[in-house]
Structure to design on (258 residues):
């Protein structure tokens, strides 16, 4: 257990999967403070920092992506890459699995190709099966709208995403026979007070952390595959600086390691 502003914080974000009876909807919810703390510790450890606007959008995306993982079967690995033109040019990457109960991601703002429209590339990998990739365009300029559009276009069902106070997020997805009118008309306050107005049953919980598991040794094969002559850089500063494409962690790679 760590501390945030003097208050104890769990080491993981506990995602609750709750069935809303009579409405035939699945509600996923969690307080993401522990996961956000790990995310910031990762940035600080490796000397990285995101601008406030990108940082806010990334945390929202990370939270809703984690909730999405719990709505899916356990044995799946998922990754989302968003190539965003507006409100600001950037790439957002998030990935994770319920098997390992961890998520990871980062923001790219340099060398980003500007698309004609906001795009989402979603990959789903299930053990023993070929990867499935879907590509959708994202109207609008906010994460909540993007998540709901992903469900409408890729999952082909209605979903509502809500950001509450104190790092709490809620994702409610339609199941067969869902009350679509009720789901479509939900407000943020309705989502926060749903247990008071609806009959609910908790199905399961899953505990997630922000964790990559990268090491310098795992990055070496990628550098070797580039088949570049790094002699000039190595002779000048004695090492190469390589960063993990998943979390942005920075490593110094020496000639001996190569």
């Amino acid at each position: 257990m760590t501390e945030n502003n003097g208050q104890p914080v769990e080491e993981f974000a506990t995602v609750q999967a709750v069935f809303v009876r009579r409405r035939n909807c699945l509600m996923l919810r969690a307080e993401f403070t522990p996961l956000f703390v790990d995310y910031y510790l990762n940035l600080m450890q490796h000397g990285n920092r995101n601008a406030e606007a990108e940082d806010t959008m990334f945390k929202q995306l990370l939270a809703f992506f984690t909730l999405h993982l719990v709505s899916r079967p356990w044995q799946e690995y998922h990754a989302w890459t968003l190539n965003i033109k507006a409100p600001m040019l950037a790439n957002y990457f998030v990935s994770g699995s319920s098997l390992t109960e961890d998520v990871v991601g980062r923001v790219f703002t340099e060398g980003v190709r500007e698309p004609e429209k906001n795009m989402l590339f979603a990959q789903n990998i299930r053990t023993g099966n070929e990867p499935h990739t879907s590509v959708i365009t994202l109207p609008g300029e906010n994460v909540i709208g993007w998540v709901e559009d992903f469900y409408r276009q890729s999952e082909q069902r209605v979903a509502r995403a809500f950001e509450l106070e104190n790092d709490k997020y809620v994702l409610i997805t339609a199941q067969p026979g869902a009350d679509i009118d009720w789901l479509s008309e939900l407000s943020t306050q309705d989502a926060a007070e749903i247990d008071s107005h609806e009959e609910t049953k908790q199905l399961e919980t899953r505990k997630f952390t922000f964790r990559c598991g990268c090491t310098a040794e795992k990055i070496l094969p990628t550098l070797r595959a580039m088949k570049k002559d790094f002699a000039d850089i190595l002779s000048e500063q004695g090492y190469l600086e390589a960063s993990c494409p998943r979390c942005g962690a920075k490593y110094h790679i020496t000639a001996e390691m190569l």
Q: What stands out?
A: The CA atoms of residues 24 and 172 lie 10 Å apart. The chain has a mean pLDDT of 90. The chain is about 30% helix and 35% strand. The longest strand covers residues 200-210.
